[in-house]
Amino acid sequence: MEIEYKHISKTVGKENLWFTNIKNEKEAEKLKIYGKVFKDSVKKIKLNKACILDPESDKTLTPEKAKVFDYFIFGGILGDYPPKKRTKAELTPFIKDAKVFNIGKKQMSTDNAVYTVKQIIEGKKIEDLKFEENISIPLREGEEVSLPYLYNIVDKKPFMSEELIKHLKKKGF
Question: Quick check: pTM over 0.85?
Answer without folding.
Answer: yes
